[in-house]
Design goal:
Strand order of the largest sheet: 1-2-7-3-4-5-6
Radius of gyration: 33 Å
CATH class of the largest domain: Mainly Beta
Low-confidence stretches: 226-234
Helix content: 25-40%
CATH topology of the largest domain: Umud Fragment, subunit A
């Protein structure tokens, strides 16, 4: 039994499957563990699916044409954002340096919005409410103080999921493309994308099963059964003959 297990551990197929399972377990553990660490009820990584936060300036906000577009302080369509859950009362509402928050849209709670806080107020129910605006939405562009906010009005503190703490340009386009193809919710697409990227790396660098194995070297043998590696060629002292030396055998051939 012990010998069988030792042989199994040396088996190439077993090693490959083990590596894949370990990588998948680590990725999924990190993914769901990050929700606990970042204190979010939703997936902590989302793709920005619209250009409402982009300031056009002199270039495009969407697609690869936005490569030279300034990213500082705002978001672009196709960004991958990391969200941290926070106490809504601790959010920065000091426009134009206010926090960019993720919240459920009033009237359509299944839709998540990523906009900047314009200002806040406490209403008669004692709750804190947020008025938000996309940086690129009219009439004023960020960082000019807005005279108008989002049309849905006040957003209750209960609808806030967190604030944006990190952004990665362009990677979100992979999630957007997959969502357009399969129609799956953004919350599930991003972890699938991350898992697929990890698996592609494994396939490229760590799976010998997908690499064509070289056939074993075939050694030619002579009539006596000697291989080429067993035969050596030397010159005779007079340079008149080539001497082929093999174990227990010496033959001479006249040199031309």
């Amino acid at each position: 039994m012990i010998t069988h297990l030792k042989n199994l551990r040396k088996n190439e197929y077993f090693q490959t499957v083990t590596v894949i399972l370990l990588i998948v377990a680590v990725v999924l553990g990190f993914w769901f563990g990050s929700q606990t660490v970042l204190n979010t009820k939703i997936t902590p990584v989302l793709a920005v699916v619209s250009g409402s936060m982009c300031i056009p300036y002199d270039g495009a906000c969407e697609g690869w044409r936005s490569i030279d577009h300034p990213f500082s302080g705002t978001l672009h369509k196709g960004d991958l954002i990391v969200i941290q859950g926070v106490d809504p009362k601790t959010l920065n509402a000091n426009y134009s340096n206010s926090d960019i928050i993720v919240f459920h849209r009033p009237g359509n709670p299944s839709e998540l919005i990523v906009h900047r806080i314009a200002y806040t107020e406490i209403k008669t129910d004692g709750k804190l409410y947020f008025y938000t605006k996309g940086d690129g939405n009219p009439p004023e562009k960020w960082p000019t103080p807005p005279t108008m906010t989002d049309p849905w009005g006040a957003v209750s503190e209960d609808a806030i999921e967190g604030k944006v703490i990190m952004r990665i340009p362009w990677i979100g386009y992979i999630a957007i493309s997959m969502r357009n193809i399969v129609g799956t919710n953004n919350n599930f697409i991003v972890p699938i994308v991350i898992l697929l990227l990890v698996l592609l790396i494994i396939i490229e660098f760590n799976i010998p099963l997908l690499r064509r194995k070289q056939p074993p070297t075939q050694h030619r043998t002579d009539s006596e059964g000697y291989t080429i590696s067993d035969v050596y060629q030397v010159r005779s002292p007079t340079n008149a003959f080539d001497v082929w030396v093999a174990p227990k055998q010496i033959s001479f051939t006249e040199s031309c």
